[in-house]
Amino acid sequence: MNKSTTRFARAQRRHARRDSAPLLRASVAACLALAAGACAASADPAKPLAPLAPNQMLQMVYPAPATTVPQTPEQTEASRRTGRKAPTPEVLQPTLDSALPSYRPRTDIKLSGTFKGGASDVLPGVVGLWFKRFQKMYPNVKMSIIPPFAGSLGAKELVKQNVDFVFVSRELKPEDLVEFKAKFGYDPLSVPISGGSYRHFGFLDAVGFFVHKDNPLEKITFEQLDAIYSSTRHRGGAAITTWGQLGLGGEWADKPIHAYGIKPWNGFEEFVRQRVLSSDGKRGEWNDKVTFEKVVFPMARHGAEDRYSIGYTGMAYLDAGVKLIPVGETAAGPFDAPTYESVALATYPLSRLIYFNLNKTPGKPLNPVLEEFIKYMLSKEGQQAVLDHAIYVPLRSGQAEGARALLAK
Hints:
By secondary structure, the protein is of the alpha/beta class. It has helices spanning 3-18, 25-42, 73-82, 124-137, 151-159, 174-184, 222-229, 267-277, 299-305, 340-344, 368-377, 380-389, 397-405, and strands spanning 113-119, 141-145, 165-168, 189-195, 207-212, 220-221, 258-262, 291-293, 309-314, 322-324, 327-328, 353-358. Helix 1 (3-18) runs antiparallel to helix 13 (397-405), helix 4 packs antiparallel against helix 12 (380-389) and helix 5 (151-159) runs parallel beside helix 6.
């Protein structure tokens, strides 16, 4: 992970935490009010209730969803031709951040031109909305994405200069970055233009770390995860191999940690590697004690079957009884669990992003059409299209601000 990406990730969470827009707070407040009323009815009114200790964790028991199965070869081929079939949207939808800037169409210059790009197979829907609404403002601009739809193919076409841009529903592969830099001498510009989804299979669901349901662990830091999973330990911690080193006592103190992960290369694996194992521009490496799976599908079952397990998976793959652990970037916290609210508000540190990738020579201006298109996507109107599409989570204002800053590089 390069330093600018690290700074962007930190900045977007700082801004997101300032955004107090409620998503589920009314229902939560109602539940708390009911609980408080029940407690007050049974308590001695002459004795005030003692305050709770700080940082106590609330646990909810929730049925695991049905098992997600891979696409068939026929479905995969159809997705490459026309895009993947959209899932049923979440019943709850996030609010649009009112602090996002409004987009003002340019009147001082006339924008025109034909541009073509590539896209992951889960993105034609929202990309089509962006194109349609942008063209309404600029009728002489024609933008399209061409099949086959696959982020990896689009990235290679960008290197070959056969496309002007590529929408990718994950971070670019290291090999794509190497090929691009070898040809042009600099990295591609990767601008976050939307959040991922919460738990939609294949549509960039959030990532969660889990343990066995009997495990008393209540939270974990990036440094601790790095000390468990990596050989490089760029976050500075000593290797962690037992549950006692994470503060667990009693029967757990001397028990070994069985770490499960996804075999490189994989989009989930690359995301965790960049977000957790990499630091200050140094790329993290996995240690040889990790038990790797080729794909994400069976990961939750390891957590349910292995009492001493820890692992990570997408929220769409939680088909077994595991315990999801709140995660914090530092020991000072805050620690967030992968709830729908924390993902939608971008406070959860393992929420994912969709990127618009293009070739921009550092220090030189972008084509004005592409620059305006990016500014539109990062505006209130552009993120309204994400909300209208109802699969992905719109960016918060701090995320959009950090993304716009990348245009000046």
